[in-house]
Write a structure and sequence with these properties.
Helices cover about 70% and strands about 0% of the residues. The chain is mainly alpha-helical. The chain folds into 2 domains: about 50 residues, Arc Repressor Mutant, subunit A, CATH 1.10.10.60; about 140 residues, Orthogonal Bundle (Tetracycline Repressor, domain 2).
């Protein structure tokens, strides 16, 4: 009979996430992971498999949380779809006002580092970005149905445009670009979608 685990799996995954997020996949060694998680190499491998398998668990959890967070942000009956889209872009642009250095989201960082050589990472990135685009498209369509977004906008293409701008804004934030650049990008994207600027 296998002995019960004497550690909190979710806490270990959170610690591993921080390690990979800080240094990237290649630069995070097994020693880094054992130090971050507090587990020995045998326990780490026994519970999660090799470094690649652990990283995939980390990335899957991060992407699932990110899409769940966006779904929650874009739901609710207290505001309209148009208001929720404006609030989303306002929130991303406002990150540029914080003085602390920002880091890219783990998905963006992992995609840049690994998607060309790791099919699992590439597939997860594509699925996640597709889900985000679908959530944005649903909001655009809801806004059109409510008369808040012009009906002549192609909802799918508009969602793809919004997705591209959001991802670009996140990259600019990591580069410590002035907050006015982020606001300009947000305003232009919202205007193109037929929404009032923030």
């Amino acid at each position: 009979m296998a002995r019960p685990r004497k550690f909190d799996e979710q806490q270990v995954l959170r610690s591993a996430t921080e390690a990979f997020w800080t240094s990237g996949f290649a630069a995070t060694s097994l020693d880094d992971l054992t130090q971050a998680t507090g587990l020995g190499k045998g326990s780490l491998y026994g519970a999660f498999g090799d470094k690649q398998a652990l990283f995939q668990r980390v990335l899957d959890g991060y992407c699932d949380n990110a899409t769940a967070g966006l779904r929650a942000r874009l739901s609710g009956s207290n505001s309209s779809s148009a208001e929720r889209l404006r609030a989303l872009f306002h929130a991303v642009a406002a990150v540029g006002d914080t003085p602390a250095p920002q880091r890219a989201c783990l998905l963006a960082k992992s995609t840049a580092e690994l998607a060309a050589t790791n099919s699992e990472v590439a597939a997860k990135a594509q699925r996640t970005f597709t889900t985000i685009a679908e959530l944005l498209q649903a909001e655009v369509e809801n806004g059109q149905a409510a008369g808040d977004i012009p009906a002549d906008r192609d909802a799918r293409r508009t969602a793809h445009h919004l997705l591209a701008v959001l991802r670009g804004m996140e990259a600019l934030t990591e580069a410590s670009m002035d907050a006015s650049v982020l606001r300009d990008a947000a305003d232009a994207a919202l205007t193109a979608a037929g929404l009032d600027a923030i």
